[in-house]
Structure formats: C-alpha cells, structure tokens
Specification:
Layout lengths: L1 H7 L5 H5 L1 H4 L30 H56 L6 H44 L5 H16 L4 H29 L13 H14 L6 H6 L7 H27 L13 H35 E2 L2 E2 L8 H24 L4 H27 L9 H37 L16
Antiparallel strand pairs: 1-2
Helix pairs in contact: 4-7, 4-8, 4-10, 4-11, 4-13, 5-6, 5-11, 5-12, 5-13, 6-11, 6-12, 7-10, 7-11, 8-13, 8-14, 11-12, 13-14
C-alpha cells in the first residue's frame, strides 16, 4: 500500500497534487493490494483495458453528455426565459465541474474503484455497494431507453412516419446493441469523435434553419411559471450535465488516471459553451414556439436533414452508456474479492457469451422502456430527479466528507468554506431529487389527463410536427 501511495504522489500534474492530502490519509482505509488492479495483471492479457489517453476520455465524455443534453436546452430556455436559462447553464455547469473533480480525486484516493458500486462499498459497506451499484445500473438502462426513444423520433421524422414506430425503436436498439459489443472503451472512443461532430453539425443546421425562418414567437427575459413546470425545465439542464455516472469507469481505463482533469475541463468548457450558444440562438428565433428535441424547430426538410446527421450521436452516445452499464455488471461478475478472473481479459467463450448476454439484456430492457414511456422531456425529468441529482451532484459531497476527517473540516477559514460548500451540494442533490420527482410526476399526470401521450407499443407517428 505504501509503495502504491508513493508512486501516485510523484510526477503528477496539478490534479494529482490537489489530492495529495487525501492520499496521505490513505492508510486509514487499508485495502488488499490486489484490489488496486481493477482488471488484474494486463501484461500478458489478450484484452487490455487501461489504454486510453486523456483526449480519448474527453471525447467519450463529450459524446456521452452532449448528445441528448443539448436537444432539450432550447425548450428549457422557452420555459425559464433567457436570463434564467443562461444563469442555470453557467451555474450548474460550474458546480458539475467541481463535483466531477471530486470524483476524480476519490478515484485517485481509491485506485481500485471501477464504478459507483465500488464507491458505495467504501462509503457504507455491502449495503452501500448494492444500493449505488443498483442505482447506477437502473440509471444507465433508462439512459439507454432515452436514446432508443430519440432514435425512434429521428427515424419517424426522417421517413415522415412511413413505418410503425415500434419497428424504428427496435432498429435503434439493435444498432446500439451491435456497437456496444467491443469490450474496451478505447475501441469506442473513435466513434465518440464522430458522435461529437454529428451533434455539432446537426445543431448548427438547426440554428441556421431557425435564423432563415426568422423570429417565430416572443422571447421573454424572465418567466412566470408554476413551481412544477419551472423545475421540470431545470431538470432538463441538470440532465445535460449528467455524465458523471460513467466517470469512474472512464478513469479506470485511462493510461494515466491523473490526467482525468484535462478531460474534465475539456468536457465542461465545450458542453457549457455549446449549451449557451444553442439555447440562446434557437430560443431567440423560435421563441414561444420552441419544441423539444431541439432539432424539431426548423422546417420539414431541414428537420429531416438535421435528424439524419444527428443519428450517429443518438446511437453512439447510447452505446457509451450501455457499455458502461454492461462493464459494471461484467466486472462485478468476473472480479471476486479483488481478484480478476481470466475471463475478464481473455478471449474465452465464457467471457464473450457473458458480455454479449449482458449487452443484449440491457438493450432489450431499454427498448421496452422507450415503448412504455413514449415521451421525451418527462422521461428526462424522471431520470434526472431520481439519479442525476445524486450522481452528478450530491454523491460528490459525500465523497468529500468521507475523505476529510472531522478534525480537519473547520481548521481554517478556507476549510470551513469547503465544508459548507460540500454540505450544500449534498442538500442540493436531495432537493433536486424531491422537487424534480414532484415536477415530473405532475407533468406526466397532466399529460395523460389531456391525452397528450400515446399508448405503449403504438405504431403512431412520433415525429415532431
């Protein structure tokens, strides 16, 4: 353990140095030495996982976070007003950067952590492992479902509802399943570059399209909303920063985990800038007529073109979430008591059949979710309220308190500020969960009362009119 701590403390960049005080206390939480190798000894392994450089990690994070997040931003501006939308994007983005940094610090403190289940084991023993691990699996399966649903909407829009919507959902799920099958994130990282180019191109076409059409409705600086409708829009912005759930797995497959800060800052600068530009431009022109997903704000022809260009990011971002979810289950199955099975890193029938079976299960469930809950914003609201509230915000506060002994929390004015800040983050997570659930459930009830939603497994065209 002592050797591990020393090697981590030398030659690292500012990110690793910033966690030095945590590493000095590592002997408070002694763990078996073999737990520090998530995937075991990869020297002679057929499949090597720890191969990503930081820019590939950044590309994965961008693809995972931006794809669906940016599509709901203009409608959030329409609900909250221009000022409220800008303030929330900048504010929540800044906080998401801090909480992402804390996840990286926790990973450096406990190198054997591969997912939220491992973090839960450190925080609260076996109960914490099962609670956080189960929550991460459910969250990511629902994220996969949202990508299947968006793929359905895209295909319906492109084809003008030429075929049954259930068919398009099935095709979306099958495409995502096939692309999820590579066993390493490094193998998917190149797809993520195409994903980011895809979504940027699609929203650029959308912005050009709405500017050509001209101003379609009034733009408000502020908004006068009920609590439920206003907070539902806030959950859309929270969802746009909800990539933290996969950070542990991304870091675990990096060559140099201490470089995670570079990937994090690249992600947060890029997504916050993109959200602001897309939100302001699309809402400025579409105004009160703004719809979600954002690609539906143009004319019929450009709408089809935008969705066609966006298909790669809709699929690939879903693939990343599906891969992280499958990897959690796969690693849990083949890493017992800190010892990795050879099936984890070798091309064995058992390893591959298990991996394929896990991926198939995830995408079958995602398909069912997309068909049973055939609405977009409210699905994002439920997901954000239940899970993003903690994985993106609240859990990082708990990590800080776990790594900072009581005797050090109030020693200096700066330490007192940090204590208050991270306690506020925990309370923020709890508030977002309760308020977001209330707003989302209220919206769903009102939607069904008004007949706004179609029934489950319907062939009805779900394209944005």
């Amino acid at each position: 353990m002592a050797t591990q701590t020393t090697s981590m403390g030398t030659g690292q960049d500012g990110f690793a140095k910033g966690t030095a005080d945590y590493e000095k206390r590592a002997n408070r939480d002694m763990v078996a030495a073999d737990e520090f190798d998530v995937y075991g000894d990869e020297g002679s392994a057929d499949i090597k996982y720890r191969t990503m450089v930081w820019w590939k990690c950044a590309a994965l994070m961008l693809a995972e976070t931006v794809s669906l997040g940016v599509l709901s931003i203009p409608s959030a501006f329409q609900s909250l007003g221009m000022v409220g939308g800008c303030i929330l994007i900048i504010g929540l983005g800044t906080i998401a950067t801090c909480t992402g940094y804390m996840i990286g610090a926790f990973k450096l403190r406990y190198p054997h952590v591969h997912n939220m289940a491992d973090a839960g084991m450190i925080l609260a023993g076996p109960v914490g492992r099962e609670v956080l691990g189960g929550a991460q699996v459910v969250f990511m399966v629902f994220l996969c479902g949202s990508h299947v649903l968006t793929g359905l909407i895209a295909f319906d829009t492109i084809t003008a509802g030429a075929s049954c919507s259930v068919l398009w959902a099935g095709i979306s799920a099958i495409i995502c399943l096939v692309l999820t099958l590579p066993r390493t994130l490094n193998g998917i990282s190149y797809l993520s570059v195409a994903s980011f180019i895809s979504i940027v191109s699609a929203v650029l076409i959308t912005m050009i399209g709405v500017s050509i059409i001209g101003h379609q409705g009034g733009v408000t600086v502020t908004a006068n909303l009920s609590f439920a409708s206003g907070f539902l829009a806030v959950t859309d912005i929270i969802f746009a920063y909800a990539g933290h759930v996969g950070f542990f797995t991304f870091i675990a497959e990096m060559k140099k985990p201490e470089d995670f800060s570079k990937a994090l800052y690249c992600l947060q600068i890029a997504d916050t800038t993109l959200y602001l530009i897309v939100g302001v431009v699309v809402y400025a022109y579409a105004g009160a007529d703004t719809v979600s997903p954002a690609l539906g704000n143009t004319g019929t022809t450009l709408r089809k073109v935008s969705y066609g260009i966006a298909l790669p990011t809709i699929m690939i971002a879903g693939v990343i979430n599906g891969h992280v979810c499958a990897k959690l289950v796969f690693v849990r199955w083949f890493r017992r008591n800190g010892v990795a099975s050879h099936h984890l890193t070798a091309h064995t029938w058992t390893g591959w059949l298990t991996w394929i079976g896990i991926c198939l299960t995830i995408w079958v469930i995602a398909f069912v979710i997309a068909e049973v809950i055939p609405f977009f914003n409210d699905l994002l609201g439920v997901i954000s309220a239940l899970f993003a509230s903690w994985f993106t915000y609240g859990i990082s506060g708990i990590f800080w308190f776990h790594m900072t002994p009581r005797s050090e929390r109030w020693t200096t004015p700066w330490q007192r500020c940090k204590t208050v800040f991270w306690a506020s983050i925990i309370l923020m997570g709890a508030f977002i969960m309760v308020a977001g659930l209330y707003a989302s459930i209220d919206s769903i009830v009102q939607g069904y009362k008004s007949g706004e939603f179609s029934g489950p497994f319907t062939c009805e065209n779900q394209a944005i009119a």
